[in-house]
C-alpha cells in the first residue's frame, strides 16, 4: 500500500454507554427540518461527533476533517465518497461521524447522502424513518429537485438525503444524467458533500461514481478485511481519486491511551 497517500489509521468507536443523551438543537437552515421523520430509535451511540462532540473520540474525526481541508487547498475537493472493500468495515459510521465533525461550525453547510442504494443504513443509524422520500425518488422523478429530498436534522447542523423509497437498478440510477444533476445541485448549495457508498468488491457502483466525486476514503477493518481484499479494492478503484485509508479495529493503537475510542495518524508513502 505504498502508493496510498495519505493513509489514515483508526481504532473502533467507543464502547457502549459512552455517549450523552440525545439533545435537541438549532433548526435553522434552508432545508426543511425532519422532525416528523424521526423514528422511535435513538441515533447509534457510536456517532460521537454528533452525540459527544467534546470528547477525545470526536476530536479524531475533526482531525480527519482538517486533513481533508488541507487536501482541498491543493485542488478541487468537495464531494467525498466513503467506501470499503467488503461489508462490516464501518464505512457508514465513519461517513456520518466525519460529516458531523465537519458540520460543527454554525456556518458550515454540510450534506450527508446515502448512495448505498443496495443496503441503505444512514436513516437507521441516525434514528430516522426509512420510508421517506430520498435520492432514488429524485433520480427517477424529474419533478423533484435535490432540495425536495434533503432534510435538516433538528438536533444538529447537518443536512441529510436518505436513499429514498423508489425502486430501480442502483447502477443505472448512479450512472444516469439525472443523478449527476443532483450532485451538481449539491455542489452549488453545500460546502461539503459526504456520500456513503456500497463496498467496492460487492457492486460496481463506486466505479461509476468515480466520474462524479472528487475523492474516496476507503475504510478497512483490522483482522477482518484480508490483505487480498484490500489489494483488490485498491486495484479496482485506482490511485487517482483515492484520498486515503481509514484503518479500523487495531487495538494496538490504544496502548498509549486510556481512551476506548477512535484514533488516527497520517502515514505518508
β-strand number: 9
Whole-number mean pLDDT: 79
Give me the CATH architecture, please.
3-Layer(aba) Sandwich
Structural class: alpha/beta
Report strand order across the widest sheet: 4-5-3-6-2-7-8-1-9
What fold name stands as the CATH topology? Answer: Rossmann fold
Percent of residues in β-strands: 5-15%
The main sheet comes to: 9 strands, mixed
CATH homologous superfamily (4th level) name:
P-loop containing nucleotide triphosphate hydrolases
Q: Give the ordered list of helices and strands.
A: EHHEHEHHHEEHHEHEHEE
Q: How large is the count of helical segments?
A: 10
* Number of discrete domains: 1
Global morphology: globular
Helix amount, in percent?
25-40%
Ranges where pLDDT stays below 50 over 5 or more residues in a row are: 1-29, 253-269
Write the layout of secondary structure elements.
Blueprint: E1 7-9, H1 48-51, H2 56-72, E2 79-83, H3 91-102, E3 110-114, H4 122-125, H5 135-140, H6 146-149, E4 151-152, E5 159-161, H7 170-174, H8 177-189, E6 192-196, H9 205-209, E7 215-221, H10 227-237, E8 242-248, E9 266-267
Parallel strand pairs: 1-8, 2-6, 2-7, 3-5, 3-6, 7-8
Antiparallel strand pairs: 1-9, 4-5
Helix pairs in contact: 2-3
Amino acid at each position: 500500500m505504498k502508493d496510498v497517500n495519505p493513509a489514515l489509521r483508526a481504532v473502533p468507536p467507543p464502547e457502549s454507554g459512552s455517549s450523552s443523551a440525545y439533545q435537541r438543537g438549532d433548526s435553522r437552515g434552508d432545508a426543511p427540518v425532519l422532525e416528523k421523520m424521526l423514528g422511535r430509535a435513538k441515533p447509534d451511540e457510536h456517532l460521537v461527533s454528533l452525540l459527544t462532540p467534546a470528547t477525545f473520540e470526536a476530536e479524531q474525526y475533526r482531525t480527519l476533517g482538517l486533513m481533508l481541508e488541507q487536501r482541498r487547498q491543493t485542488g478541487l475537493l468537495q464531494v467525498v465518497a466513503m467506501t470499503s472493500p467488503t461489508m462490516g468495515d464501518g464505512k457508514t459510521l465513519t461517513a456520518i461521524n466525519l460529516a458531523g465533525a465537519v458540520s460543527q461550525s454554525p456556518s458550515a453547510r454540510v450534506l450527508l447522502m446515502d448512495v448505498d442504494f443496495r443496503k441503505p443504513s444512514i436513516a437507521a443509524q441516525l434514528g430516522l424513518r426509512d420510508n421517506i422520500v430520498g435520492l432514488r425518488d429524485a433520480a427517477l422523478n424529474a419533478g423533484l429537485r435535490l432540495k425536495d429530498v434533503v432534510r435538516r436534522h433538528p438536533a444538529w447542523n447537518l443536512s441529510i438525503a436518505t436513499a429514498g423509497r423508489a425502486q430501480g437498478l442502483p447502477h443505472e440510477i448512479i450512472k444516469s444524467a439525472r443523478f449527476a444533476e443532483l450532485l451538481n445541485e449539491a455542489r452549488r448549495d453545500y460546502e461539503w458533500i459526504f456520500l456513503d457508498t456500497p463496498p467496492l468488491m460487492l457492486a460496481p457502483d463506486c466505479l461509476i461514481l468515480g466520474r462524479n466525486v472528487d475523492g474516496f476514503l476507503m475504510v478497512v477493518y483490522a483482522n477482518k478485511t484480508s490483505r487480498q481484499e484490500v489489494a483488490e479494492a485498491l486495484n479496482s478503484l485506482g490511485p487517482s481519486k483515492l484520498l486515503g485509508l481509514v484503518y479500523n479495529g487495531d487495538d494496538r493503537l490504544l496502548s498509549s491511551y486510556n481512551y476506548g475510542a477512535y484514533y488516527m495518524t497520517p502515514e505518508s508513502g
